[in-house]
Amino acid sequence: MLQPEKLAQAIQILQELNLDAWLIFARETEETPERAWELLAPGMVVWESALLLTKHGDRIAIVGQGDDDAYRKSGWYSEVHSYVQSIRELLRATVTRLDPQQLALNFSESNPNADGLTHGMFLTLQKILRDTPYPARFISADPILSRLRGRKTAEELRRIRAAIKRTLLLFDETTALLKPGLSEKQIAEHFHRRCDEWNVGTAWAWNQCPTVNTGPHSSAGHGGPSDLRVEPGHLVHIDFGIKQDGYCSDLQRMWYVLKPGETEPPAHITHAFNAVVKTIQAAADILRPGIVGWHVDARAREVITGEGYPEYQHGLGHQVGRAVHDGGTGLLPRWERYGDTPYGIVEANQVYTIELGVQTDAGYIGLEEDVLVTADGVEWLAPPQRELMLVRSN
After folding, report:
1. pLDDT, tens digit, for every residue of 78-136?
2. Pick from 114, 132, 149: which residue ends a domain?
């Protein structure tokens, strides 16, 4: 089971950061998912509930009667308390007994995966702890969650590898499937049929995953596939990932549809593709534990502009795990929209995408690779695409 591994990891992170306690406060988690709750608890809760973890090893669950049985049976917590009418006295007494000098809560201005505490629950917590010193000791749990979600355990990596392996199967099928006349929507339908057969989800919204682009008039991004059809001379770009056993993949692959009489793409298309490959490799070459995220993005921008192409208008890479955009640190430019995430330090056992593209007169060229940060570099979790896959017109 993943949750016991992550609970133990959370205690280690609290000790590493010298933070006294972390409080995860949630309700109706089926309707309003709390991402940290999903990572650490045996199931959903309905009533107001709390998980309290401390650097001393305490693992305390306070849940409504009816939810408590699963928490006791799990054996994951040193204490399980239940209530009927109000969580107020139990939670207030527990926090007072622990007397943390810092109490980490799930709010963050930069990291959506560390921002699970709703405003309503924050106000409720303030009322529960009114007239105690603890509201003045609230701090963001972002440093905890960034590490907890980023540092993948062996089981998490196994699941990510399995999701990537299935994604590659679909890309292989696409090479045999592609032909002039197919619409972007028809290509996407094949991906969806296979997901249904495998009983897996897509890594992001179903109607936008996969992203399929054919030719120069297709808009790369998150708009979803259109009625545009594959034609000779088109580039075909697909961005796709699945979510399987709670973990995601995220890859982009490229094809060129040969015109009659062509045996290879035009030289300027090959040059653009090779520039993207070169940039991804240059980023991978410096990606290792200890580097600051934005430094990797800056290196990629140097390479792609040096090849004669404009800067890409997004970040170079994000973490992948339970969500397709996971963890905290990103390989991102120092733009306001990314907050503090470009300044994070890369760690071993994090999984990142490296992705970028350029526009051509035949369509968008975009590649995305998934890599695992190792002690001294990266491991490619899928064989990186080094050549355009070719589709014949007849």
Report:
1. 999 999 999 999 999 999 999 999 999 999 999 999 999 999 999 999 999 999 999 99
2. 149
Range of the domain at 67: 2-149
Domain count, the chain: 2
Question: Which band of pLDDT confidence, cut at 50, 70 and 90, is reported for residue 222?
Answer: confident
**CATH number (domain holding residue 303):** 3.90.230.10
Bond from prior residue into 210 cis (ω within 30 degrees of 0)? yes
Beta strands in 70-150 (DSSP E): 79-83, 103-105, 138-140
The model's pLDDT over 306-354, given as tens digits with 9 standing for 90+, comes to 999 999 999 999 999 999 999 899 999 999 999 999 999 999 999 999 9
Cα 49 to chain center, whole Å? 26
Cα–Cα distance, 8 to 216 (Å, whole number)? 50
